[in-house]
Amino acid sequence: MSQRELERMLRAARPAPPPELRERVRMLAARPVPAPARLHLRLRRRWPVAVALALAAALAAALGAFLLGRDQGSRPRSAPLSKSAPAAGSRALAPAASEADAAGTARAEEAVAEAARAFGGAVVSRRVVAGAVELRLRFPPGRARAAVRRLAALPGTSRVELARDGGRRAGTVVVRLSRP
Question: Are 144 and 173 a contacting pair, CB within 8 Å?
C-alpha cells in the first residue's frame, strides 16, 4: 500500500463517535451558558488604587532623590576667587592658620589666577580641602594643556591636572595649592 492509497483510505473512512460521547455533547449543549466572570468589575474598581499607589511611589522616589542627592555630580559649592578674596577667604576658612601661611597661600592663589588670565582662562571655583586649596580653572579650547605646563611650574602648586569636561570644548584644569 502506497502513501497516497493510505491517505485516500483514511479520508474516506469516517469514524463514528461512540454513543456516550454524543449524549455528553447533547447535555452540554442543553445547559445554559454561565455568566462571564466579574473579574473585569473587580479590576475596574482596583485600577484607580493601583495608579494612585504607583504615583505615590514615584513621587516619594523623586522627592528622596532630590533631597538626598541634589549636590551629586554638580560643581562643589564655593566662593569664586576674586582679586581681593583670597587672603580674606583663606583666613576665614582656616582660622588656625597663621598670618604668614594665609599670606603665602593668597600669593600662590594670585599667581595661579594671573597665569590663568594670561592663557585666557578664569577661576571658576575655589575649595578648601585638608591642608590645601583647590582651584578649578576654565580655559578656551586648545589652551588648557599649555596652561597645565605653566601652572605646574608655579611655586606652591602640589598638583595640576586636566579635568574631564564630559564632551565640552573648553578645558577645565584643577590646581591644588598646598598650604605652607
Answer: yes
> Alpha helix locations (H) across the chain?
3-12, 19-30, 39-69, 85-93, 99-118, 144-152
Q: What is the pLDDT of residues 122-175, one digit of tens each?
A: 888 888 887 788 888 888 878 888 888 888 888 777 778 777 765 555 678 888
Domain ranges of the chain: 85-178
**pTM for the whole structure:** 0.41
Please count the other Cβ atoms lying within 10 Å of the Cβ belonging to residue 89. 22
Which long-range CB contacts under 8 A does 158-162 form with residues at least 24 apart?
158/132
Contact criterion met (CB below 8 Å) for 95 and 142: no
Q: In what order do the strands lie in the sheet with 132-139?
A: 122-129, 132-139, 171-178, 157-163
Cα radius of gyration rounded to whole Å, the chain? 40
Phi (first) and psi of residue 132, to 5 degrees: -155, 170
- Residue 37 Cα distances to 40, 43, 135, angstroms: 8, 12, 71
